[in-house]
Write a structure and sequence with these properties.
Layout: E1 2-3, E2 57-60, E3 63-67, E4 74-85, E5 88-98, E6 103-114, E7 118-128, E8 133-142, E9 153-163, E10 166-175, E11 184-194, E12 198-208, E13 211-222, E14 231-240, E15 244-254, E16 259-268, E17 273-282, E18 288-297, E19 314-324, E20 330-338, H1 341-347, H2 351-355, E21 358-369, E22 372-385, E23 388-406, E24 414-430, H3 433-440, E25 451-465, E26 469-482, E27 485-486, E28 492-493, E29 497-510
Length: 520
């Protein structure tokens, strides 16, 4: 059955939503531990109402001419012509329909849509509504939208639909950028687009600002609807007077739904090569762990090692994660270990890592229940200052605290305490001992690898409240034990020290006064 009402077409312009599917590594980590996993973005409704399908084929236009006998007619539609068949829609200035073969020839401002997943345009095109195949010349188009909103746009000399979900492209250009001169793009002699899968490019060239940079015999751009898929990331480039031209490449690999790994490689034309790995995991919606390493082999290229050109290569390791256990414990890791300050300042990308003289690594476990808190801490800190590398350690540190709670025998009083048991150390590594003595007047501090510190601090608070003021009286006593101490020469010796004192605190707070003013 064929229905041919007369009406103007309703255009549906391409609505570009730009993101880079290649260099934007999918984010699997929460911004904060409490962040919930959000549902994927919903597609924008195009407003298209499906018509036709099965045996019904619908064409709209402003003008119609019919030639030939029934069943073999040639029907020409002009003036905002539009053909609909289920999810398929063909729009053009002129559409010629060959009834016997089911072929449609479109000319002038041709637009072909397959639902909301694909759009092809061109100056001329052919489409067979029975086989769903056809071709378009001087074409543009876009691919299906992924869950994160990414769409790949392309132009081509010729585009041919070779399957229900497959398109063959000749002399095509592909990008996710909306600028007239895209920040990045691929061109290829031949390409195959498979909906909800990937774009395969042959004899491709990767371009930056339309300038060809890297020739590639083969390239692949993922367009799967899930947010994450394995593949090579887009190479990046940089330059500095110290390291020369930098070429960075990476390969991204998914490890199931809750983990992925990125292998990285860098080439510094004036220095050497770097390589590393970044692993990310998610145990649940709140728990995650990131870890990785980076290594640089310096002075392979450029100037050789001498007094003015030292070897500043090295390595760094990091771990960052939070895990919430079902029994109420929380474990947190924030570890950064760098082989040297020179390596961190020369080869780090973050400005904070470059300028900061402090490097801290710590792992702690926490649990809160009733009025009690338990903390277990392992911490290392290095501070690099001229002539001195100061290292402090807390290995391990146990803190057990009780928050204020009423006394059973004295309801007006509240009892609390803080206790800690720690293994601590401090070491000052000095480059020039004479200079250190001259500046500080002392010897460098070097403690045993594990010094003991024990502290207990109980308190009793009694609040008094009246109509006009409140007073809180707090009494406490504190005792601290150190296994080592300083002598008169400021040298660490094995003589223990006990520090003890009492304190009394009175907190007086008058009634607060306030007035609201309203403008009538």
């Amino acid at each position: 059955m064929f229905v041919f009402p007369i009406n103007g077409q309703q255009t549906n312009p391409v609505d570009k939503q730009v993101a880079n599917p290649l260099t934007d590594t999918p984010n699997v980590n929460p911004i904060a531990p409490e962040q919930e996993i959000k549902a994927p973005k919903k597609k924008t409704d195009s407003g298209y109402t499906q018509e036709g399908g099965d045996d019904e084929f619908v064409i709209y236009s402003l003008k119609e001419t019919i030639e030939g006998e029934e069943g073999k007619r040639v029907i020409t539609r002009t003036g905002n012509a539009e053909a609909r068949y289920g999810i398929y829609r063909l729009q053009a200035d002129k559409i010629t329909y060959y009834e016997e073969s089911g072929r449609l020839v479109a000319e002038g401002s041709v637009v072909f849509d397959q639902g909301d997943d694909q759009r092809l345009t061109g100056s001329r095109g052919e489409f067979n509504y029975r086989t769903k195949l056809g071709f378009f010349v001087d074409s543009t188009g876009f691919t299906n939208q992924t869950n994160d909103g990414t769409i790949i746009y392309f132009t081509a000399d010729r585009v041919e639909r070779t399957g229900l979900n497959e398109v063959f492209v000749e002399n095509g250009k592909f990008t996710a950028c909306e600028e007239n001169i895209p920040k990045w793009s691929f061109t290829a002699d031949e390409a195959t687009i498979k909906n909800d899968d990937r774009i395969k490019l042959k004899n491709a060239k990767f371009r930056i600002k339309d300038i060809p940079v890297i020739p590639l015999p083969y390239a692949s751009i993922p367009i799967k609807k899930r947010d994450r898929s394995s593949g090579f990331l887009t190479p990046t480039f940089g330059f500095s007077g110290n390291k020369g031209l930098r070429l960075s490449t990476a390969y991204y690999k998914t490890l199931g739904r809750s983990a992925d790994v990125t292998f990285r490689g860098d080439l510094y034309s004036g220095r050497g090569v770097g390589y590393g790995l970044d692993l990310r995991t998610r145990a649940n919606s709140r728990s995650y762990l990131n870890l990785g390493f980076y290594i640089v082999k310096d002075r392979i290229f450029g100037a050789k090692i001498d007094r003015d050109h030292p070897d500043q290569g090295g390595s760094s390791i990091y771990a960052d994660g939070v895990h919430y256990f079902s029994n109420g414990f929380t474990a947190v890791a924030d570890v950064k270990l760098t082989s040297s300050l020179d390596f961190r300042q020369v080869f780090s990308d973050g400005i904070q890592q470059i300028i900061s003289p402090i490097e801290v690594s710590q792992v702690f476990v926490n649990k809160n229940w009733n009025n009690y808190t338990l903390n277990l801490l392992a911490r290392s800190q290095e501070i690099s200052i001229p002539n001195v590398l100061l290292k402090t350690r807390n290995l391990p540190s146990v803190n057990f605290d009780k928050r204020p709670s009423p006394l059973s025998f004295f309801k007006q009083g509240y009892f609390s305490f803080k206790t800690s048991l720690e293994g601590v150390s401090r070491r000052e590594n000095v480059s020039n001992l004479d200079l250190y003595r001259q500046v500080s007047g002392n010897e460098p501090v070097v403690t045993p690898a594990l010094g003991q510190r024990f502290d207990i601090f109980p308190q009793i608070s009694v609040p008094f409240n009246t109509k006009y003021f409140s007073v809180t009286a707090t009494a406490g006593a504190r005792v601290t034990y150190y296994s080592n101490s300083f002598n008169d020469m400021r040298q660490v010796v094995g003589r223990d020290v006990i520090r003890k004192y009492g304190e009394l605190e009175l907190d007086f707070r008058p009634v607060a006064l306030a007035k609201n003013y309203f403008k009538e």
